[in-house]
Amino acid sequence: MVRTFERIIQKLNSDRKFSEILIGSIFALLARAAATGLSMLATIIIARMYGAKAMGVLAMINSFLILVTIFTVLGTDTSILRLIPEHTAKYSVTSAFHVYRKTQYFVAAISIVTGALFFLGSGLVAGKVFSKPHLSFFFGLAATFAVFRSIMLLNIMAVRGLMLIRTFAFMQALPSLAMLLILLVATIFFRNPNNPVYAQLAAWGITAVVGAWIMDRAFRSRMRPDDAVHSMRIKDIASISLPILMTASLHFFTGEVGVIMLSMFRSESEVGYYSAAVKLATLTAVILQAINSMAAPKFSELYHTDRKDDLFYVARKSAKLIFWTTAPILLVLVLLGRPILGLLFGNDFTVAFPAMALLVIGQFVNSISGSTGHFMNMTGHQNVFMNIIFVAAVINVVLSLVLIPKFGINGAAFASMISLGYWNIHTLFFIKFKYGSSIGYVPLFR
Fold first, then answer.
1. Which of the listed ranges 38-47, 178-187, 289-298, 338-347 does the model predict with the highest average pLDDT?
2. How many CA atoms lie within 13 A of 385 on its CB side?
3. Number of domain units in the chain
4. Is the pTM of this model over 0.70?
């Protein structure tokens, strides 16, 4: 098995068209693996030292802040991933920097206003949306960190756009590293039951500040006085970003609706059990994100230079790499998921195994589909992708409303599995009928 895997990697690495993505993906994968390991260690500490209830509270705060930053980033984190390589290829690094800087100021301004509004309405959010009015203080506190999380997301994507592989690897690991260190110090010296929330918010703040400084230096070191600059208005950036915003909003509902619905109908502890299941089931997301982080800017570059054959060649190679690196992990989770849950989080968490198994099936469909979402966004089909995700979100919400009151975390997991499978398969069919070629990969099938 190991030798087979080594031969596959060697063959991919000898491919000049794909080697850039492969090398970059290895760095990104190592960073994501480190980040996931650190995050998992923090989760284990929270589960064993603070309990399932604390995990549930942190999961709700995370979901809330993800929701807030959807409306502060406004899809610019994905559009900047497309615009930076596009401007660098067509015009200059200085032109790309102007787009980035204008987007950064825009996101910061929107974040401050939106964060203030959510801060004022934190009681309403805690009581009406999450059915947990006693947590209104934490929702208000999280709203004040919206600007930091928004700038953090924008900077991480901008690094990807510049193809700064080692810097991107560092920025991927920094939030998890900062979270773990702060949590350890707080646990040893303060032992407040709310330490996990405070540690998470502080980690995002540190990453945002460090990332902004790194991006400024990275751009300025590449800029030249005679660079050509193609100016883009905020209106032009928004025209690309807003469909992506809608897609991001719908992604939020497909990814976080389980936590929100469980918060409405079940206890914080059950939310914590579901959070643990999601943590394990989405381990393969580390690999997908690592490969996609390098593939997405390449998709944009090849598409906007009208190299369609190379585009599909790279997309299919990416899908093949995703499959062979994720399938073994998913298989282990299905076979040994129950003892792994008990070993890592405690025996109480083994009740989450059926939910985790359902989530793993959804991740398998995601794995064989390849980089569907990034392919659509980088090739100008963000509106079509938005419509596909909208239907998937509706499916998820309807199934969750029907299943969660009766089946709890298993109902949430089943709804997520069906939704994830739907949008991946639908997107693959769209690409096949649009271009006459597919980007997915399943062994023995062409």
1. 178-187
2. 24
3. 1
4. no
